[in-house]
Amino acid sequence: MFIGQPKDKINLDVKMIARFYIPSPFGYRQEQTVYKFSDDNGNILCWKTSGVINTDKCDNYNERRGLRIGDKLNISAVVKEHYTYRDEETTSIIRVKCNHVIEEALSKAERDEIKRNEQLATLKDGDFLYPMPYKQYKEHYSDCETLTGTYKDRDDKGRMTHATITVIIREGRLKNSGTRFQHYSGYQFTNENGKYVVYRAVSEENALKRCQKENPNHTWECTKIYNYRHMSGRLSW
């Protein structure tokens, strides 16, 4: 339902549920930000602006560099008009000010950390984490769950590099080698540039042969071994 009447001043608690950008009617190559809020009753409010929300009364909030989807705020505003868009009654507002922050939404990094901890808590004896090139994951382990937040395609200086990811290998996912009394292990090889690949084989020698065949013109050294059969602990990224 609509809130208030045009030119009414309102003060209410809202949650930011969307934010997107549209071309501005005031200049070439300019854009406006559209903020979409909902109140405690599910009523929709929309605010179009070329600026940012006034948070003068929220010093700590300014450090957040603006609104985040999911933030709960107490705002003051003026009702501009009412309209219906796709059967949704919407109250358009202007002169929006944030009086105080009721609840801050979690950042992506914070959400990833919570999900990652939940995943690690599900690991049992026989499960383990397997860091590998992203290409290897897509080709051979796409049926496995990946550890949230471990995809990486840049180095510490922000330069593009070979994408890697950590995969959760559940007990029984890797089969025995097929050779009597022998089982696969994982062998991580690192080249002179610090890049690494991981191969599964019954011996380091076999893994090195495959590595040199598929990645010629580099010098490879085995830097880590994963014992799948006897591994009861958990590898960390």
Q: Low-confidence segments, ≥5 residues, pLDDT <50?
A: 177-181, 230-237
Order of helices and strands: EEEHEEHEHEEEEEHE
Query: Count of DSSP E strands?
Result: 12
Straight-line N-to-C gap:
50 Å
Mean pLDDT: 83
Number of helices: 4
Largest sheet: 5 strands, mixed, barrel
Number of separate structural domains? 2
Cα Rg: 27 Å
Which strand order spans the largest sheet, edge to edge or round the barrel? 1-2-3-5-4
Shape: elongated
Structural class: alpha+beta
Estimated helix fraction? 10-25%
What amount of the residues lies in strands?
A: 35-45%
Secondary-structure map:
Elements lengths: L8 E15 L7 E9 L4 E6 L9 H4 L9 E14 L2 E16 L4 H14 L6 E6 H7 L4 E2 L5 E3 L5 E10 L15 E6 L5 E6 L2 H11 L6 E7 L10
Parallel strand pairs: 3-5
Antiparallel strand pairs: 1-2, 1-4, 2-3, 4-5, 6-9, 7-9, 8-9, 10-11, 10-12
Question: What features would you describe in this structure?
Answer:
By secondary structure, this protein is an alpha+beta fold. It folds into 2 domains: 9-103, OB fold (Dihydrolipoamide Acetyltransferase, E2P); 118-227, no CATH class. Helix content is 15%, strand content 42%. It contains 4 helices and 12 strands; from the N terminus they run βββαββαβαβββββαβ. It has helices at 59-62, 108-121, 134-140, 204-214; strands at 9-23, 31-39, 44-49, 72-85, 88-103, 128-133, 145-146, 152-154, 160-169, 185-190, 196-201, 221-227. Strands 1-2-3-5-4 form a 5-stranded mixed barrel. β10 (185-190) and β11 form a beta hairpin. The protein is elongated, with a radius of gyration of 27 Å.
